[in-house]
C-alpha cells in the first residue's frame, strides 16, 4: 500500500489505521498529541506518504532508545 511510487497520494484515517493495525481513534489521538502530522481537507484528515514515513521512523527511534535503556 505505501511505497515510493505513492509519494503524491494522500491517505485517510482508516487507511493509516489499517496499515498500522491500530484503531482509527489511535490515529486521531496521535494527531491530537502531535505525534503524527496530517492535513485537514474540509472536515477530513489526510496524510501524505512522507508524513506516514516520518511517523514510522519516529516510532522506530523510540523502540531503539527503549532497547538501549533496557540493555
Description:
The chain has a single domain, classed as Orthogonal Bundle (Multidrug-efflux Transporter Regulator, Chain: A, Domain 2). It starts with 9 loop residues before the first strand and ends with a helix. Strand 2 and strand 3 (44-48) form a beta hairpin. It is built from three helices and three strands, in the order E-H-H-E-E-H. Helix 1 packs across helix 2 (24-33). Strands 1-3-2 form a three-stranded antiparallel β-sheet. By secondary structure, it is an alpha+beta fold. The protein is globular and about 45 Å long.
Uncertain segments are: none
CATH hierarchy: architecture: Orthogonal Bundle
- Gyration radius over CA: 13 Å
Sheet with most strands: 3 strands, antiparallel
| Count of individual beta strands | 3
Termini gap: 35 Å
Average pLDDT value? Answer: 87
| Overall morphology | globular
The total domain count is: 1
Level-1 CATH class name? Mainly Alpha
Q: According to CATH, what is the topology? A: Multidrug-efflux Transporter Regulator, Chain: A, Domain 2
Return the string of H and E elements: EHHEEH
Total helical segments: 3
Report helical residue fraction. Answer: 55-70%
Estimated share of beta-strand residues: 5-15%
Secondary structural class: alpha+beta
Amino acid at each position: 500500500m505505501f511505497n515510493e511510487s505513492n509519494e503524491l497520494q494522500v491517505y485517510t484515517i482508516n487507511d493509516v489505521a489499517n496499515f498500522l493495525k491500530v484503531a482509527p481513534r489511535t490515529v486521531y489521538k496521535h494527531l491530537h498529541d502531535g505525534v503524527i502530522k496530517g492535513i485537514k481537507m474540509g472536515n477530513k484528515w489526510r496524510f501524505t506518504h512522507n508524513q506516514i514515513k516520518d511517523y514510522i521512523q519516529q516510532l522506530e527511534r523510540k523502540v531503539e532508545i527503549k532497547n538501549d535503556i533496557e540493555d
